[in-house]
Amino acid sequence: MEETKREKFTRLAEARMNNALKQIELLGNLANTSAYEYSEEDVSKMLKTLRKAVSDLGDAFEKTSKKRKFSL
Questions:
Q1: Is 26 within a domain?
Q2: Quick one: which of 8, 49, 53, 64 has the fewest CB in 10 Å?
Q3: Does any domain span residue 16?
Q4: Would you give per-residue pLDDT tens digits along the chain (72 residues)?
Q5: Quick check: is 57 in a domain?
Q6: What is the CA radius of gyration of the chain?
Q7: How far, rounded to the nearest angstrom, does the alpha carbon of residue 44 sit from its chain's CA centroid?
Q8: 26/42 same-domain check
């Protein structure tokens, strides 16, 4: 039996989210000052990049459900 689009989405979303969460957890390990040295600027750049990626993700899903139209 072939996988439905919903089943495929669920399977891939769960796997990719778990991978993303694990990678974010690994980034958090870098906060260990006994093993690493970093500046506030480094942390700020990392967080800004992650926030932008999450914002872009939200935009991608909004585009599929809300077609934007322009009119004068």
A1: yes
A2: 64
A3: yes
A4: 999 999 999 999 999 999 999 999 999 999 999 999 999 999 999 999 999 999 999 999 987 666 666 667
A5: yes
A6: 18
A7: 17
A8: no
Burial track 44-56 (b if 16+ CB lie within 10 A, e otherwise): eeeeeeeeeeeee
Q: Are residues 1 and 18 in the same domain?
A: yes
Q: Which of 45, 43, 53 minimizes the C-alpha distance to 20?
A: 53
Rounded Cα distance, 57 and 54, in Å:
5
Please identify which residue in the block is written with the tokens 């979303």.
13
Write out the two tokens for 30: 């870098």
* Same domain as 41, residue 26: no
Contact 30, 38 (CB under 8 A): yes
